[in-house]
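Final report, Chapter 2: Outcomes

The project's central promise was a pipeline that accepts a single protein chain and returns its three-dimensional structure in a standardized token representation, suitable for archiving and comparison. That pipeline is now operational. To close this chapter, we reproduce one record exactly as it appears in the project archive, with the input sequence first and the structure output second.
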Amino acid sequence: MTRRGGARPPRVAEGMVALLAPASVREDVLGDLHEHYLANTGAAHPALAYWREALRCLPALAWYRLERTNLARLAFTVLACALAYISVSYWDVSVARRLAASLAAQPDAPALLAIRVLYFLTLFLGATVAGAAAAVIAFRRGRSFFRNALATLSPLVVLLSATVAVSALSPAHGAPITYLALRLLVIVTAMVIGAYATARLTRIP
């Protein structure tokens, strides 16, 4: 419903509603308030009636905007990070390490270097897919790749770095710090590549 001509409602109240109302419903909300104002022009204080209706709308509009923007973005970011972390961890343990272990157990097993290269390539493939999935879930159109990656992938990098730090400090793990750092570098690089390729293919942006 669009606004019609006639007496002008209070500019400040109208501006507050326009500021909080999402673009998809802004004209409808302002149009309804304007019609209500025109219907009350014969009353003693039509401006006060407009203010009352505007203030009644503001909490709902504020929650609607928050729900549709910040909360949704946060939820998608958390979901993308959680799924990427779980999928990379699962791929690492259940696919890449098992493949390397099965090759090492063969009687004619290849050299240790070849097994490690295969492990990292397999891990790279899984992390690339995880990065692509994170981009599909959480990247926003109209925002640069750098900002999307910073908002979506940086929490995941922090989480992975914390996991590496815990593993390095754990006596039971026994893996060299160079191996853990290389593993982290492979995962992060692969995820960035997967996210970038997905953003280019889907034009985000």
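Archive annotation: The chain has seven helices and no strands.
This record, like all others produced under the grant, will remain available to the consortium after the project formally closes.
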